[in-house]
Amino acid sequence: MKIAIIGTGNLGCSIAKGLITTNAITSLYLTKRDLKSIQEFDGYKNVYLTSDNKEAVSKSDIIIFAVQPSHLEGILEEIASLLTENHVLISTITGFSIEKIESSVGKDQFVIRAMPNTAIAVGKSVTCLCSNQKGAERIKIAEAIFNRLGTSMVIPEHLMQAATVVCASGIAFWMRLIRATTQAAIQLGFDAKEAQELAMHTCEGAANLLITNGNHPEQEIDKVTTPKGCTIEGLNEMEHKGLSSSLIHGMVASFQKINSIKTEQL
Ligand SMILES: NC(=O)C1=CN([C@@H]2O[C@H](COP(=O)(O)OP(=O)(O)OC[C@H]3O[C@@H](n4cnc5c(N)ncnc54)[C@H](OP(=O)(O)O)[C@@H]3O)[C@@H](O)[C@H]2O)C=CC1
Ligand SMILES: O=C(O)[C@@H]1CCC=N1
Questions:
Q1: Cα four-point dihedral sign 183, 9, 113, 88
Q2: Which atom of ligand 2 is nearest to the CA of 115?
Q3: Mean pLDDT over residues 20-24, rounded?
Q4: Which fold has domain 164-260?
């Protein structure tokens, strides 16, 4: 696959790492205006760094946009005349609707929105996808790309903002939980490095139990909570202090933030 990433910042770099390590590319163009921060990709076979978005688009078929929302419209205008029937446009931009993309490139382009997360760098992103009517013919290509880099789910466009909170921002939310459990482990006697190792592997184990067994979290919790034991004591104290409520409130606040910002202001 001939892929271009337009805007190789935090997310773009993560996607690039995933694509390179999984050998998913025939060629990969990485663009940004200042190329200094992506020199780590220089020298990889078939990977090209450029500030010229037009060059990247004309030499690629799959164009992944990963710029800040306020930059997308200008870039779409810049490259619109170069687009052919071979191009598949994949936008990872938060809050930028398919309708708005079509207003720059037309309804005849294959347009897909993707919401991955930074775990794409290590092949563990869950990526939500939706498309315009024409793009439905190419959604399998997007699924094939993102399934190499984790898992994917096709969803209706109206759920993309919710997907952003759950999956993309979700990485930051889970990091805070891992940091908090690390801090607790240090207070309980482990040194910092051991504490983080225990916290992150326990987190991975909990997620894998659900992924492998398909159980509801409470079924797994029931297996751990000895009556009158230390686990239920800790869990109930966390809930008295608002653990679940705080997480739900935080995610709803995050969702409201996305919905409160018009794309023009992003
Ligand atoms: N970060 C995340 O975890 C996620 C982000 N997203 C979405 O992805 C998008 C990117 O986010 P993120 O990676 O965090 O943002 P960054 O600011 O880290 O990356 C954006 C990159 O775009 C480059 N850029 C700006 N203008 C141009 C241009 N005209 N041509 C080419 N490149 C350009 C910038 O580099 P330079 O200034 O050198 O040009 C910058 O490196 C956002 O829309 C965000 O909503 C979605 C899911 C997860
Ligand atoms: O925080 C943000 O707004 C973006 C969208 C999801 C991840 N980063």
A1: negative
A2: 6
A3: 91
A4: ProC C-terminal domain-like fold (1.10.3730)
Instruction: Return d(Cα 60, Cα 55) in angstroms, integer.
Output: 9
Q: Where are the domains of the chain?
A: 2-155, 164-260
If you take atom 2 of ligand 2, which residue's CA is the nearest one? Answer: 169
pLDDT tens-digit profile of 125-176? 999 999 999 999 999 999 999 999 999 999 999 999 999 999 999 999 999 9
CB of residue 169 inside a 6 A radius of ligand 2: yes
Q: What percent of the chain has pLDDT over 70?
A: 98
The confidence score (pLDDT) of residue 262 equals 61
Q: Tell me whether 0.85 is exceeded by the ipTM.
A: yes
Ligand 2 nearest-atom number relative to CA 171: 7
**Sequence letter at residue 68:** Q
Give the whole-angstrom CA distance, residue 86 versus residue 101. 17
Res. 85: pLDDT tops 70: yes
- The SS3 assignment for 11 reads helix
Atom in ligand 1 nearest the alpha carbon of residue 78: 29
Q: Which fold has domain 2-155?
A: Rossmann fold (3.40.50)
| Predicted model pTM | 0.94
User: What one-character DSSP code corresponds to residue 165?
Assistant: I
Residue 263 has pLDDT above 60, yes or no: no
Regarding the beta carbon of 118 and ligand 2, being less than 6 Å apart is answered no
Closest CA to 82 of 97, 65, 60, 103: 60
Residue 176 tokens, joined: 């805070």
Give which of 67, 65, 117 is closest to 87, Cα–Cα: 65
With the CA atoms of 143, 146, 152 and 156 taken in that order, what torsion angle do they form, in degrees rounded to the nearest 10? Answer: -60
